[in-house]
Specification:
By secondary structure, the protein is an alpha+beta fold. The chain contains 17 helices and 17 strands.
């Protein structure tokens, strides 16, 4: 899950936090595998909300993965949805998907988990439709209801939806307790921890938002991940990656997961007693254009500016100079390696900057140069290298002589609110896949948008219904690929969608990268959880 959907930390860990960490056992003094000592995982990802209805970001997903149960989930190393809280799920008709809930499930507060809780969980996400929430993922769902205590029926908008089972594994899928979660608003983190409406492999024992979270294994969990190998895990949040680097280098924590700089990773790979583990990820970094507020006096001029920018970027240079080749150039919103991925931006705008082509786009539309671009990026949510990345973008654009870039940055808590309020004409976002399918790099960005019914989450206004930005053809293509059981035909449609994105440029893909985690030698299981599902599972880890 984000923005991915889908965060980093806000403050250094306090002295009180240090006391709590000592109780868990730090990385350099807990060598006995059978001692019961916990693991400490460090991160710079922020948590927006523990409540699934109020978050669609990686930091929140990390917490939700540990504490909530889903109908279906991905076992370690697999991309096939398998039963978690469900006993089984299958299509009853082309437009109805039915799940039977396992008997005897309960939340940590003692309340029974039934089909009614499942239906409530999905309905409230749609009803609340929080700007930072995952309602956009449920566009395929027409309705959901519990037909009895153990059966939940989803009615879908389209027949034979090829992605819906995987949607159940995403940020929209956690099951919450209807007796404790409000139906019409997002629950605060403090209230969620107190309510103990968790049925996942862990519960939360202590919590200080974006400073410290202590997880305790849930003995009653019965699901995909199996029993936790480690009874207690502490997530320690860092304001700065350099502090995260120092603690893992000194082995004061057991694991560092998101987000160290490429230079830090290279340095730590040479440190005795540490292992750098990489895995599939498909993380996407891209520029978003607010089609309403971006520069240009007409739709034609706005498009010309977007195409000129696409012709002015040197992705390979950014990948090498900023990310030390831990990222690679992205020439589509669908990263290389996904079934159906193509490279239309390379075909349309070239692999290297072409100032003459960029000028041609602008001249043809009558755009005066230099074009003033207000470009906003976030310095903490997508890693500390974002500053270097977007300064490189600024330099490349201005090197053509066609652009003058006003580069600004804002911390994530404010950033996420402001881009949703049309405050940024051109801005950075990143994407961490919800599930391993090309559709997950397309539908969340391109689906018809209506604030009452949701749609794409970026607030780009692309395919904004009842406006000049609506795109019925794109909507039709998306519906076709989602419902086509013929693999070759579906991939051909995916190619058409990617070509259309390159022609319209509502987004400008820059880079794609892998997941990286660093653990002390005693930690096992990192390779099992850094997989294409992009779910970091504490249940896989042991020491």
């Amino acid at each position: 899950m984000t923005t991915f959907r889908r965060g980093t930390a806000i403050a250094a860990v306090s002295a009180l936090t240090g006391v709590a960490l000592a109780a868990c056992g730090a990385g350099n003094n807990s060598g006995d595998k059978d001692s019961g000592a916990g693991l400490i995982v460090g991160t710079t990802d922020k948590v927006v909300s523990i409540d699934p209805a109020g978050s669609y970001d990686n930091g929140s997903l990390n917490v939700q993965t540990q504490v909530y149960q889903y109908l279906l989930n991905f076992p370690a190393g697999s991309t096939d949805p398998t039963p978690d809280a469900a006993q089984k799920c299958d299509f009853a008709t082309p437009t109805t998907y039915v799940c039977t809930i396992k008997p005897g499930l309960k939340f940590a507060n003692g309340n029974a988990l039934t089909a009614s809780d499942v239906a409530f969980s999905f309905n409230r996400i749609v009803a609340i439709n929080d700007p930072s929430g995952p309602a956009s993922l449920l566009g395929a769902m027409k309705s959901v209801e519990a037909t009895d205590d153990s059966t939940v029926t989803f009615t879908l908008n389209a027949a034979n939806d090829q992605t819906f089972p995987q949607v159940l594994v995403t940020s929209a899928g956690p099951i919450v307790d209807e007796d404790t979660y409000p139906a019409d608003k997002v629950m605060s983190d403090e209230a969620a921890v107190k309510a103990k409406g968790f049925s996942g492999p862990y519960t939360i024992a202590k919590y200080s938002k974006n400073q410290l979270a202590e997880f305790k294994a849930n003995p009653d969990y019965d699901g995909t991940y199996g029993k936790a190998k480690t009874p207690a895990v502490t997530m320690k949040y860092y304001a700065k990656p350099e502090n995260l680097k120092l603690d893992i280098k000194n082995k004061d924590i057991d694991v560092a997961y998101r987000s160290l700089t490429p230079t830090d990773i290279a340095d730590l790979s040479k440190t005795d007693g540490l292992n750098v583990v990489t895995g599939a990820g498909g993380e996407l970094r891209y520029v978003t254009f607010n089609l309403k507020t971006m520069p240009g006096d007409s739709p034609e001029q706005k498009l010309a500016i977007r195409k000129a920018m696409a012709s002015s970027i040197d992705r390979a240079d950014i990948a090498k100079q900023v990310y030390k080749d831990t990222f690679t150039p992205a020439y589509s919103m669908v990263p290389e390696g996904q079934a159906g991925a193509t490279e239309p931006f390379k075909d349309a705008y070239g692999e290297t900057p072409d100032a003459d082509k960029a000028k041609g786009f602008l001249d043809e539309a009558g755009v005066s140069t230099p074009v003033d671009i207000k470009l906003q990026y976030n310095p903490d949510h997508y890693g500390s290298s974002s500053g270097e990345e977007y300064n490189a973008v600024k330099r490349q654009l201005e090197a053509t002589g066609l652009f003058k870039v006003d580069l600004q940055s804002t911390e994530w808590v404010t950033y996420s609110e402001e881009y949703n309020a049309d405050a940024y004409p051109v801005f950075q976002l990143g994407w961490f896949p919800d599930f391993p399918d090309a559709d997950n790099y397309l539908s969340p960005f391109l689906s018809p948008y209506d604030k009452k019914k949701s749609g794409n989450f970026t607030n780009s206004h692309y395919n904004d219904l009842d406006t000049e930005f609506a795109d019925p053809e794109m909507s039709s293509l998306l519906e076709s690929e989602r419902t086509d059981g013929d693999k070759a035909a579906r991939e051909a449609t995916l190619g058409k969608i990617q070509d259309r994105v390159a022609d319209q440029v509502p987004y400008l893909p820059l880079l794609t990268g892998k997941q990286v985690a660093i653990g002390v030698d005693a930690v096992k299981g990192l390779d099992e959880t850094l997989d294409a599902s992009f779910k970091f599972r504490f249940t896989s880890l042991s020491k």
